[in-house]
Amino acid sequence: MWLPETLVEAARAVREGAITSAALVRAALDQAQAHHALNALAWLDAESALAEAAALDAEARAGHWRGPLHGVPITVKDLFNVRGAPTRAGTRAPLPRIAPEEASAAARLRAAGAVIVAKTNLQEIALGLTGENPWTGDVKNPHRPAHQAGGSSSGAAVAVAVGIGYGALGSDTAGSIRLPAAFCGVVGFKPSFGKVPLDGALPLVPSCDHAGVLARTVADAALLFAVLAQAPVNAAPLELPPTLAVPFEHMRGWLTREVRAAFEAWLDRLQQRGARIANADMPLELAEAHFPALRAESALVHHEALARAPDLFSAFVRAALQQGYAVRAVDYLRAREAQLVLRQAVAEALHRVGAQALLMPTAPCAAPLRGTTVIALERGPMPLRQAILHFTLPAAFAGLPALSIPFAWSEGLPLGAQVVAPFGEDEAAVRVAAWLERAL
User: Fold this and answer.
1) What is the Cα–Cα distance from 9 to 50, expressed in whole angstroms?
2) What pLDDT, on the 0 to 100 scale, is given for residue 1?
3) Could you tell me how far CA 211 lies from the centroid of its own chain?
4) Where does the pLDDT of residue 224 fall: very low under 50, low under 70, confident under 90, or very high at 90 and above?
5) Closest Cα to residue 227, out of 152, 166, 158?
6) 164-211, pLDDT tens digit by residue?
7) How many CB atoms lie within 10 A of CB 28?
8) Could you tell me which of 208, 225, 267 has the C-alpha nearest to residue 243?
9) Concatenated DSSP letters for 153-204?
10) Which has the closest alpha carbon to 2: 25, 17, 18?
11) What mean pLDDT value characterizes the chain?
């Protein structure tokens, strides 16, 4: 059976009568069964998904269209409430009350005609970057299952990569959309802070939490974002080649040799296609210096469970949450100030060199083997978490729009590049990423 390759094509095919929503949903369910061993899904109700698809097909035959996603299957990270589905957030610990019954983001997708076929697995309470979870099991990389899928939106990235729906709703606090997108070879878009509502979702670090999307192409991600943000987005590639700021000093020593070689070769190709590459100097290190103080917010979110049942968190998550109790008020306030300082510094640095966006690798390495905790970088062995946060944390800490797009392969595993734009310039980030995608 013919199936559209992208979300945009699937939505068009349903509208033109070339395929039914029921056929798309059945295909997604078939992929869920075929790739069950990857452990991408936390909840699946095939009967309800097929019933919803049938209702949407009946509406289409009657000439009624709910919106731009009419009949298209998608998934939702098990951090967001979805009507009729449990929310467990990958933990055994009791969760704080999450209201409303259906997250606004999920409701907006449904109102636009999307069929929510499943909820996806994640790192426990979204705290982690590997996709490994002692309670629900590891989510496995779709290209090499012995390798990490990235986290915390691990199941969302895997679902998109293997065709369990055409897109996914995820969340990103320090890289949790962009990193799994990079490791799994899909597009991940973390919009500007506050662009997509987070009510009805379990918070982690509320001043850094973002709702965002994973999809197969930049245009697909832009369409999902437009629905979630309730604003039109021009996803057409830039007409002229962009000027891109690259933080070479921030990257120095923080990549594997393979990623550095692939990224520098890609920059050369982009320049051959007319892009201008400018060196950028900006204090991205502020994020790593001050983010630990924001752990106080996480401790507050989960304070009741920490008091009543701390052992129902895994040891790593429990320790990370409890660090929040040691944060001094003055350090927390400095961290909040640093978020705004970094936001402004990035905008000023891009303006100085005339760049539309910042460009750097999403991760310092290809997806490591599951269980890896230390990675060999050019500067020497580094804790994997610290190495990864070096690249993804700044945009989340400052609330900046950022996309990860696949740009190369290394020994059978995809590599991702990260496009970061000034705060509020989400469309600029999308259009730069679309140009880069086309240039590939």
Assistant:
1) 20
2) 82
3) 8
4) very high
5) 166
6) 999 999 999 999 999 999 999 999 999 999 999 999 999 999 999 999
7) 27
8) 267
9) SHHHHHHHHHTSSSEEEEEESSSTTHHHHHHHTSEEEE-STTSS--TTB--S
10) 18
11) 98
Q: Is the pLDDT of residue 307 over 90?
A: yes
Token output for 286: 């502020």
Contact 56, 111 (CB under 8 A): no
Catalytic residue chosen out of the listed positions 21, 152, 298, 404: 152
**What are the residues whose beta carbons fall under 8 Å from the beta carbon of 331, sequence distance 6 or more?**
290, 293
pLDDT interval class at 440 (50, 70, 90): confident
- Is 176 part of the annotated catalytic residue set? yes
430: nearest Cα among 438, 439, 421: 421
Q: How confident is the model at residue 267 (pLDDT cuts 50, 70, 90)?
A: very high
Number of helices (H) and strands (E), helices first, in the chain? 16, 13
Residue 244's SS3 state is: strand
> Residue 65: is it exposed, middle or buried by C-beta count within 10 angstroms (0-12/13-18/19+)?
middle
Cα separations in angstroms, 144 against 30, 254, 299 = 20, 24, 35
Name the β-bridge partners of 415.
408
What CA–CA distance (Å, rounded) separates 392 from 160? 20
Q: Coil, strand, or helix at residue 422? A: coil
- For the chain, the structural domain boundaries read 7-229
Question: How long a stretch of residues is the chain?
Answer: 440
**Marked catalytic residue, from 21, 171, 176, 404:** 176
77 given a catalytic annotation: yes
* Residue 320: strand, helix, or coil: helix
- Please report, in angstroms and rounded to a whole number, the separation of the first and last CA atoms in the chain: 29
Taking 3-state DSSP, the helix, strand and coil percentages for the chain, each rounded to the nearest 5, stand at 45, 15, 40
For residues 152 and 21, what is the distance between their CA atoms, to the nearest angstrom? 29
And the tokens for 10?
A: 């699937």
Q: Beta partners for 358?
A: 245, 420
Whole-number Cα distances in Å, 367 to 296, 307, 358: 30, 36, 23
**Domain spanning 7-229: which superfamily?**
Amidase signature (AS) domain (3.90.1300.10)
Amino acid present at 20: T
One-letter amino acid of 212: G
Residues with Cβ within 8 Å of residue 50, at least 6 apart in sequence: 22, 25, 26, 29
Candidate list 21, 77, 298, 314, residue with the active-site label: 77
